[in-house]
Amino acid sequence: MKGGGRGRLQQPLRVESQRFRLLSIVGGCFVFCLVFLLSSRPDATAFDTVSPRASLEGARRPAAVKTLRTSSAAGSGGDFQVDILPQQQGGSLRQSVEQSAGDKTATEWVRDTVIVEERSDAEASEAAAEPEEAAESNPDDQPAPGTRSRGNEPGAEEKKVRDDATVVTTAAAAAQPAAETTATAPDRPEGKPRAAGGGQSKLQEQPARQPQEERHDEPARSGGGDHHQKQLPPLCDFSDFRSDICDMAGDIRMDANASAFVVVDPASGAGGGQWHRVRPYPRKGDETCMGRITEVTVRSTGGDAPRCTREHAAPAVVFSIGGYTGNIFHDFSDVLVPLYTTAHRYGGDVQLVMANVASWWLVKYDRLLHALSRHAPLDLARAGAAGEVHCFRRAVVSLRAHKELIIERARSADGLATPDFTRFVRRALSLPRDAPTRLGDGTGRKPRLLVISRHRTRLLLNLDAVVRAAEEVGFEAVVNESDVGNDISQVGALINSCDALVGVHGAGLTNMVFLPPGATLVQIVPWGGLQWMARADYGDPAEAMGLRYIQYEVAVGESTLKDKFPPGHKIFTDPTSLHKKGFMFIRQTLMDGQDIAVDVGRFREVLLQVLNNLSP
Fold first, then answer.
1. Whole-angstrom Cα distance, residue 426 to residue 514?
2. What pLDDT is attached to residue 17?
3. What are the DSSP E strand ranges found in 292-429?
């Protein structure tokens, strides 16, 4: 009995012992898994209700923090800014990049861990105010953290950061193949561009040199001692929507063979400095056009530089006459007007440096170029073939361009405006008239009206009827075919003798630059919802030049499109909806795909209005 009782007593004890061992194994596995998770994720905290993002920020306080925030400053809802700010005490590094979403990408070298954090516009504006407060509290000569260098408009920022930090150069405009910016010596790897939104622009961001181990035992790094290099101002401004401008002063050497402008500055250091690539032509974002433009390198260096073969006392203005030149509209809007805006301040003592030179273009516009510069133009390619190195104390690479054929006084550094340019043209070509003929002035002279005759596309089919109508209302009518080979002095003299200019939308209307102020431009706009284009290309410039402007918009019955498309087609009922097909469709179908026969009775009213403009 005793033996049986003892057996029954040991059986429940054995069961309890097995349960205890099982619980011990399960508990041990749980502890092991927890330890494993914590060791593999140092940012995780057991039973912590704080978000992983906040935990990670607290766990890696010394690391760099990268903030991604939306910004509306650049004028498009897809813009953002990237700030990289070290958390170490005494750190003075912030990089700010403003980009158009989908157009650009950057490759960055940042030590340790980078945290990405989205912010609202309100938070972004608060963060943007921090650099100003930091600047007030920084007693040293060093720039305060977050100090930025901007152009006149939001979008262009460049940083040359000291020590082992990175350098960022940003072109924040519409997609442009023109600007390819790099911030280091050429032997650094380039960031790979990411195509998005159809943009071909590249933003390359590289470190000034490979990061080195930080030395916290060197007080000179935080005290602004001899180890610090002077922060250089940005060489280039990428903020403008039409062109990238590099305006430099100092010891500037043009290595023509490399199409490079080198700014020699000991503060740049032997192995680093700013490094940019620009195409000196104001059609930024137009891939077809800018692909024809020679790329020019602009960089700074404190080390070896090419030796001068010729020194110039006059500053240099560098531009291309490639692109769309050969079309009179682009000759003026892309080159001559921006060149006047850029070079006028030097009073003729300026060296013009040209890329993509065409000798016929130089011959055609010789008098205008000579009026801007008393020095013979310098051909960049020819100087490069000769191995020449030209040295300047001041150089401007690319031209300052505003709107089409317009100089905006508010944006001009010299207070210039469009009438200043047309006055310059009249003086350079010795055009005598600064005012149109006035009716009843006692001379008995009829006012003169010139009709631009196109000979390939957008023909004015009833040109003779228009001429007769003009003569009937009291004009002396003249017909002229604008051609690229025409001598500019002869064309200018003819146009300047007239009081009104009439023509279908096209490059020939650019001849209005020769008209005397107060004359009238009549633009015949083809069918197809092209009013906006006509106004931007010629209407607004005409008024800016001091001319009277009349826009005659063609009706369906006056266009040959009625013979190519059936009635009720969308091209007649809703032509502007077809613009989404792109500019090639607009050009081929709506511009080059139709000719015009104006309603003479309707057009006569326009002629009478022009005549009335000449009344005293």
1. 7
2. 72
3. 296-301, 310-311, 316-320, 351-355, 378-379, 389-397
Task: Find out whether 527 and 577 touch, Cβ atoms under 8 Å.
Answer: no
**45/38 Cα distance (integer angstroms):** 7
- With vertex at residue 512, the alpha carbon angle to CA 506 and CA 517, rounded to the nearest 5 degrees, is 155
**CB of 189 within 8 A of CB of 257?**
no
215, 90 Cβ separation under 8 angstroms: no
pLDDT per position as a tens digit, 178-213: 433 333 333 333 433 333 333 333 333 333 333 333
pLDDT tens, 411-428?
A: 999 999 999 999 999 999
- Could you count the other beta carbons within 10 Å of the beta carbon of residue 201? 25
Sheet holding 116-119, edge to edge: 95-99, 80-85, 65-70, 116-119
Other beta carbons within 10 angstroms of residue 219's beta carbon come to 9
Helix (H) or strand (E) holding 504: strand 500-504
Strand order in the sheet with 156-159: 156-159, 166-171, 206-207
Question: Which has the closest alpha carbon to 77: 54, 58, 100, 98?
Answer: 100
What one-character-per-residue DSSP string does 432-491 give?
--SS---TTSSS-PPPEEEEEPPSSSS-BTTHHHHHHHHHHHT-EEEEE---TTS-HHHH
Chain centroid, CA 422 distance in Å: 26
∠ CA(304), CA(306), CA(309), 5° rounding? 145
DSSP letter (8 states) at residue 513: G
Topology adopted by domain 430-613: Rossmann fold (3.40.50)
Least confident of 13-27, 93-107, 387-401, 516-530: 93-107
DSSP state string for 1-61: -HHHHHHHHHHHHHHHHHHHHHHHHHHHHHHHHHHHHHHH-TT--TT--S-HHHHHHHHTT
Nearest-CA neighbor of 592 among 466, 508, 506? 506
Distance CA 43, CA 47 (A): 13
Q: Which residues of 296-335 are buried (b: 16+ CB within 10 A; e: fewer)?
A: bbbbbbbeebbeeeeebebbbbbbbbbbbbeebbbbbbbb
Q: Beta strand pairing status for 520-525 and 500-504?
A: parallel
Residues near 167 by Cβ (< 8 Å), separated by ≥ 6? 159, 160, 161, 183, 184, 205, 206, 207, 208, 272, 274
CATH 3.40.50 in the chain: give the residue spans: 430-613
CA 240 remoteness from chain centre: 5
Question: Residues 93, 214: contact at Cβ < 8 Å?
Answer: no
What does the alpha-carbon distance between residue 380 and residue 361 come to, in Å, rounded to a whole number? 15
Tokens coding 397: 């690479």
- Dihedral through CA 394, CA 347, CA 360, CA 244, nearest 10? 40
Q: What is the pTM of this model?
A: 0.65
User: Which tokens is 602 given?
Assistant: 């309707």
